[in-house]
Amino acid sequence: MKHAFACTLLFCLASVQIGHAKELKPTLPQSSQIGDHDMKKDEAEVQAAVAQMTSAFEKNNIDAVMNAYEPGAAVVFEPGQPVTNEQQLRQMFGGMAAAKPVFTYSGHEVVVSGDTAVHIAPWQMVAHTPDGQEIRQSGLSVAVLRRQADGSWKMVIDNPHGARLLPQAK
Questions:
Q1: Residue 144: helix, strand or coil by DSSP?
Q2: Running DSSP on this structure, what letter comes out for residue 129?
């Protein structure tokens, strides 16, 4: 996103210089303006899809959680061990939701290319075991989503353990 912004800024600055040289007002083509608007809309819809799944998970609504994923989606509950079996996914989500997790995100980055998007977000979670012990976890979520025929977005890959590849701060 930073690179796209920098390229756009450079294009605008170059257009201004050319425009002043010719005494013309620079304008962006209409299609770029529409494309930027659609891109922001897509980014917001992807972020909303992730937020809806998170909310459903916190409410232990496993049917809504599963509806956030395409059939055959891969979810990484343990680093390096993706799960794609629907029954196993339901069982894992149900077991985790029983701990009443509450998630917070410290930011979101969404990159959209056509009908595919990646959502990246640092997260923190607080939950409680049946005997009342507090569980705290955090990580970096990396999720790939695909636009569906009805225009909605569903997750295809969901890896909340992206931070494990980063060097640990000392």
A1: strand
A2: -
Measured CA to CA, the distance from residue 78 to residue 63 in angstroms comes to: 22
Q: Which residue has the tokens 């012990």?
A: 133
State the pairing for strand pair 153-159/69-78.
parallel
Provide the 10 A C-beta neighbour count for residue 119. 23
Please state, in angstroms and rounded to a whole number, the distance separating the CA atoms of residues 91 and 26: 57
**pTM of the full predicted structure?**
0.76
Contact 57, 97 (CB under 8 A): yes
For the chain, give me the number of helices (H) and strands (E)? 4, 7
Helix (H, G, I), strand (E, B) or coil at 161: strand
List the beta strands (DSSP E) in 10-133.
69-78, 81-83, 102-105, 109-113, 116-128
CB atoms within 10 A of CB 140: 17
Residue pLDDT tens, the chain, 170 long: 433 333 332 223 233 333 333 333 333 333 334 455 588 999 999 999 999 999 999 999 999 999 999 999 999 999 999 999 999 999 999 999 999 999 999 999 999 999 999 999 999 999 999 999 999 999 999 999 999 999 999 999 999 999 998 887 55
